[in-house]
Hints:
By secondary structure, the chain is mostly helical. Helix content is 76%, strand content 0%.
Amino acid sequence: MDELGYEQAxxxxxxxxxxxESGAGTLEEALGLWERxxxxxxxxxQWLDGAxxxxxxxxxxxxxxx
Length: 66
């Protein structure tokens, strides 16, 4: 998961959501997709948090304030 860039993680997350919304597959498959989606969402959030911190540092501010 750590090797995924933001766009890759986002695109895969969108695919997971689409698959879950379709309702196809077994309960076990849906649970596996849900868990993958949670991990992908966390990865996306890590990227966004990192970007926010970098922007704040470039501005000379505190990322918690923005």
